[in-house]
Amino acid sequence: MRNPRRTALRAVLATALVLGVTAGPSALPALASTTGPARPAPVLAPTTAPASTPAPALTGASSDPALARRLSTALAGLPSADATAALVRVGGREGVWRGSSGVHDLVSGRPADPGARFRAGSVTKVFTAAVVLQLAGEGRIDLDAGARSYLPELIPASYGGVTVRQLLNHTHGIPAPDIPGTTVEEWYADRFRIHDPRDLVRSATAKRREFEPGEHQHYLNIGYTIAGLLIERVTGDTYEHQVGVRVLKPLGLRDTSFPGTDPRIAGRHNHGYQTMRLDDGTTGLRDVSVWGTTDGWAAGDLISTTADLERFTKALFRGRVVPEGPLLDEMFTLPKVTHLKTGEDAAYSVGLSMKVLGGREVWGKTGGRWGYNAAVASTRDGARTLVHSVNSTDAKGQDMNKVAQKIMVAAYGMPGGTASARRTPSAGPATRGLGS
Where does residue 20 fall: left (phi above 0), alpha (psi -120 to 50 degrees), or beta otherwise? Predict the structure, then answer.
């Protein structure tokens, strides 16, 4: 049963927390019910801006001409069938580049805003993991303790062997909760539904476990939903406020926020579009910028900018968020298990994922919400960092978005010596996937 008081408190704090975030649109479109707006979102022809408005020229600045050429090529030609805009920041001692391409929206065709906010999806998990590790350093959470010892009324005895660490590195064996819908069209129609995290946990833990805790790895959101509730239990505070006072405020991440139950992106943002079946039966692009994210919560509802995420990534890798030592090492340690479905070696640590790109290990996290893909990445020594936001039209596709893939390859080189990169297995409708 949803707790109305807690839901209302979380929404208020999520809105009030945001440390200098400017106001969003003056009014939300009228809603007929929790399952859809009274007037439909704009529907547009796929792939291009209006013929009367030429696509804007690529903008960018770099200290490395070769890097600039590669990234400029990766971002050329937007808007396209794959993406309507892209924002990129590369940093570190190996070279710096800032660039944007594409359009703010397909109606006006004006240039994409390089300082725009966007949905970061599963990049949220890095923030959640960092707060849990901070609490572990304070002795308030034991990574080896059972999650049930903190939430006994929520996690049944059948999952009593799941530890906090296993929640964070996806080796817990808890299946995904049931979320209504099986197609993007059905999820779109239900985009204003409010999901309570406790209901999601109850749905998941009512099922049989996928495997014994610690036996395999399977990337799902549910471990981080439980981690968010665990943060609330040990602090007596909301998850959103704890991330705010522990990470956002100390680092000055003034454009990073949690939307709570508000389906809008507060402040300036480039519109997101998704390819789907339209009301007339044809396939085209629909504006999906307004879409609730309560199904993701502590696993995937963060809103941020490339500048804020770059600052966070650099601080994290330098030990300014989680102190250098055993706790930070948790984020760079892969469990010695195999993936449940593919049999491949585990790719996820606590909060991060690792991929070999250009012959070296790159650590980071990707995220996806409808209309938006995002990523943070860095070499362990911080020699090259990457943050990008791509307004992708296939944000939940089985393959990595082509523009996002080109950006990653331009920044780091070919993955595994091949010309393509497959997404890691899906986290379900809330967020996909350096895995999302």
Answer: left
